[in-house]
């Protein structure tokens, strides 16, 4: 297990050195999107239209935060379960997405896309929404405001703590970690 | 008859929502500290450390522990000698829920099943809540509340086993539900198991079992030891905190049976309701 500090956008060089189980502190701009926003992003790509943010090297965080109190950048903001994005992620990866942050298992199509097009899936600690929100320095809705918590936000993060779950070599921390501790 | 004012119920509901979504209950805190002390896997231990730090930040800043502040779930017992003045108890709970979620800056997570639209301006902010009413003797109102997130609800399952499958069948079913769920419901978990009654009653009991404080003992000694047996089995799965591998997958298993273990002669209904580590529950008496 290694520890890395990376700045976004991520390059291919950044992601190929990462292995499942590595700890990464991310800094820079990342984008939020959940199911409803993913559906719209994929439709834009299929129609050949421009996305609300540059996908090349981008990191998408699967999160729907609580509303901020006056004076706060963002409310509580931990990851949501990622499998709901499985049907959309491969196309985004093919078009340049380099990192996804969520929690929970991904399907084989996503893992395959991570291998083929060099992208990684990071896990953040679910239910640590108050702690994670402290690493988010600013938040701005840049698309689909009508989706409320599901709108696309541009976040500036500083040392945002994540763990590599699926790397570019087909490794899966959930499967390997569990095998290590399973008692039959 | 004892008179209880509508507005007092609204305010009590509002306060219990805001407090329990920002302050992890003492039983959960103690359980997480114990899990941290006992966890052998480094990565799972690091997650547990983050959860303890998260609880501290949330309480200090009155910030929601988790962004998924859930559906509002209530179990309500109304004494026969209580009269509510100024409106119905159902409306009071709706109003208290809306105020708590809105004024507490909590997330409105309800939506239309098909359009998936968040209807907070039409249906009300995070409305409707899920409410189970019961009428009991006495002149008090008891309200239990939990904020139930979607991640752990999505992996919950109910079934009706054949009577011959017995306790062994129940054990296999519970194990399968937790094993299949893996990292998705945010372990370490509290596992509610409803046994008996009917298909629907087992599900309701499995939810209510989650409201029990961790560390409390099941009044049925046989079920108390079954809870321990299940917990041990589940912790052998190796899932660990956030599914990254470890020994602390389940903090507690809570079983509820129907009227001292009753059901139909042809059936053995079983339901498993999964609760993440952010178990936000509280209880008041008015």
Task: For the structure shown, list the relevant keywords.
heterodimer, A: 184 residues, alpha/beta, fumarase, five-stranded mixed barrel, 7 strands, globular, B: 286 residues, four-stranded mixed β-sheet, 23% strand
The low-pLDDT segments of chain B are none
Radius of gyration of chain A: 16 Å
Q: Rough shape of chain B?
A: globular
What is the beta-strand fraction of chain B? 15-25%
Protein structure class of chain B: alpha/beta
N-C termini distance of chain A: 26 Å
Radius of gyration of chain B: 19 Å
Count of β-strands of chain A: 7
Which architecture of chain A would the CATH scheme give at its second level?
Answer: Alpha-Beta Barrel
Counted up, domains of chain A total: 1
The two chains with the largest interface, and their residue counts, are: A-B, 48 and 49 residues
Largest sheet of chain A: 5 strands, mixed, barrel
Number of helices of chain B: 8
Order of secondary-structure elements of chain B = EHHHEEHEEHEHEHHEEE
**What helical percentage do the residues of chain A reach?**
25-40%
Instruction: Choose one word for the global shape of chain A.
Output: globular
- Look at the structure and give the CATH class of chain A: Alpha Beta
Structural domain count of chain B: 2
List unreliable stretches of 5+ residues of chain A: none
Arithmetic mean of pLDDT of chain B: 96
Coarse structural class of chain A: alpha/beta
Give structural notes:
The complex is a heterodimer of chains A (184) and B (286). Chain A is of the alpha/beta class and 184 residues long. Chain A is 26% helix and 27% strand. Chain A contains 6 helices and 7 strands. Chain A has helices spanning 12-16, 35-46, 89-94, 108-117, 129-133, 173-181, and strands spanning 3-7, 23-32, 59-61, 99-102, 120-123, 136-143, 152-166. A 5-stranded mixed barrel of chain A has the order 2-3-4-5-7. Chain B is α/β, with parallel strands linked by helices. Chain B has 8 helices and 10 strands. Chain B has helices at residues 6-22, 26-38, 42-61, 89-103, 150-153, 166-181, 199-208, 221-235; strands at residues 2-5, 71-79, 82-85, 130-136, 141-148, 157-161, 189-195, 250-257, 268-275, 280-285. In chain B, helix 2 (26-38) runs antiparallel to helix 3 (42-61). The mean pLDDT of chain B is 96. The interface between A and B is large, with 48 and 49 residues.
